[in-house]
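Quick review question:
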């Protein structure tokens, strides 16, 4: 049983490494070309990934290779990064007392937004193995970067999210922004509901949550969107299969029924129009979507 947890954690490190790689490829582009900018992404990559960044020729070839293997994946990752960046930046213009990054992986927003965050505490929640790897990389590469990060290692098989956050200084009544990127499809429905209930019951009025999800038809094998079946089959052959989804068009009702308000649900059409209007032909996988909502 312990070995299976280790395998899962190792697989997750590979997956989040691929996300950082997509961000690094995009960040090497000129300011005119790039959609998102994460200058710290390269610091989280191993030698194999870094080798792919040496020349524009290599980067362009790898971008095409990723697209050929997982249709719409690369462009979804960079559009998702930019959308959540924009969302966080907008919220930081107002009163935010805490930021909680659930399943933080190699997220670098605590460093990229350090000036806007000021003294706002950032709680990074992740599996202990992933959190340890992240902290080691930060210590080696970003030790001098200003940040207010509190690492919260949580093994959801044995520990309770609320308890661990509170043990690390989290305040239940504070207005909080929750970022939950690239996680929900790999959790059970009960686990997703547990997190949603925690956000509702243990954060201040006006707190916000943003996460992405897959449409339920991909789990049922009935999704005919280009690349959907390929991704589902490849992920299910690994140690982190896709298991949770929301019915297409029902994210608003799903979150409203659980007590959230002001639900905004966006997908490939909105992301393409917003970020790729000048880059026709970029395919963003439409079976992954983003949604954000407010705690009343």
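Suggested answer, residue by residue:
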């Amino acid at each position: 049983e312990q070995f299976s947890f280790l395998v899962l954690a190792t697989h997750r490190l590979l997956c989040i490494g691929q996300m950082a790689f997509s961000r690094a490829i995009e960040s090497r582009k000129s300011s005119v070309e790039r959609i998102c900018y994460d200058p710290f992404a390269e610091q989280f990559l191993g030698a194999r990934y870094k080798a792919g960044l040496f020349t524009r020729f290599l980067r362009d070839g790898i971008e095409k290779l990723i697209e050929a293997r997982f249709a719409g994946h690369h462009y979804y990752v960079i559009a998702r990064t930019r959308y959540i960046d924009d969302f966080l930046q907008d919220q930081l213009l107002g009163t935010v007392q805490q930021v909680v990054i659930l399943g933080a992986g190699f997220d670098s927003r605590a460093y990229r937004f350090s000036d806007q965050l000021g003294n706002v505490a950032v709680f990074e929640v992740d599996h202990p193995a992933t959190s340890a790897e992240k902290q080691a990389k930060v210590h080696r590469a970003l030790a001098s970067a200003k940040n207010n990060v509190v690492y919260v290692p949580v093994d959801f098989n044995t520990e309770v999210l609320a308890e661990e956050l509170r043990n690390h200084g989290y305040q239940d009544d504070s207005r909080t922004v929750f970022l939950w990127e690239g996680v929900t499809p790999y959790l059970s429905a009960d686990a997703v509901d547990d997190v949603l209930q925690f956000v509702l019951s243990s954060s201040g009025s006006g707190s916000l949550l943003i996460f992405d999800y897959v449409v339920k038809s991909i789990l049922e094998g009935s999704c005919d969107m280009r690349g959907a079946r390929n991704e589902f089959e490849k992920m299910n052959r690994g140690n982190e299969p896709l298991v949770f989804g929301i019915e297409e068009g029902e994210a608003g009702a799903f979150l409203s029924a659980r007590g959230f308000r002001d639900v905004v649900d966006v997908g490939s059409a909105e992301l393409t129009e917003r970020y790729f209007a000048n880059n026709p032909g970029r395919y963003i996988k439409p079976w992954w979507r983003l949604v954000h909502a407010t705690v009343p």
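Why it works: The first helix runs from residue 2 to 27. DSSP finds 13 helices and eight strands in the chain.
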